Amino acid sequence: MSKQRRYEVTDTQWEQLRKYFPQRKAGDRGRPRNEDRPILNGILWIMRTGAPWEDLPERYGAKSTVYDRFVLWQKSGLFAKILEELGEEADLENIGMDSTSVDAHQHSAGAKKGAENAETQQHIGVSRGGKTTKIFAIVDALGNPIHVHLVAGNVHDSKEAEPSLTSVQLGEGTTVLADKAFGSKAIRAFITSSGAEYCIPPKANEIPWYYDKHLYKERHLVECFFQKLKQYRGIATRFCKLAFRFLAFVQLASVMIWLA
Known about the structure:
Layout: H1 11-17, H2 36-49, H3 63-76, H4 78-87, E1 94-104, E2 125-127, E3 130-139, E4 145-152, H5 158-165, E5 175-177, H6 185-193, E6 197-199, H7 213-216, H8 220-229, H9 233-236, E7 237-238, H10 243-259
Parallel strand pairs: 1-5, 1-7, 5-6
Antiparallel strand pairs: 1-3, 2-3, 3-4
Helix pairs in contact: 2-3, 4-10
């Protein structure tokens, strides 16, 4: 048995993941399918190092095979499905909502232009910080991600709040923790109309409202999630030209954070 290397999936993690991968049945014909576990480890190696696919070590298999399998899994929505199912176990007593910006490397530019759809949107915006992409996330009371998506770096966070919260089962007993950027009247009304509560501090130029300052400290959990996410160098800096490929990296990293 090969040595367990750093950042690769452990036996325990693989037992939780293997049910999501197609299993070869007895009597199936055709060329034997390469094992999925080393291929998954190869994808994680790319994410951790931020290296190009051409530099993938031979121990993970042929570079083309690993990349093609990643594309296949991404197109099938595999990583999104795993993350969604893990989210069914989320602790929704408190949920934290925020975004983080990542620099878009020059290699991420140059994707084909076309109509705005899921396969052509780059989600790269230009601001004072240069070209960036935002990762928008919602985490549960334990800091586990229950929703992630991408937006251009110049998009204001408040525009993403309501669409993101619709993906979470808000209701009585749930408190949404967020910073001042999410304190608009519309967002607060949306949260309360869903049966939940909010813990959001008011801006200095607004009529103040009460928020639990002690509870608000729990908002650090979403910041901790972003720190864990950016331990993957391929996520801390965006190299992918296609946004949906980069999102697949974010989803897979989120799954690994759940299973850590």
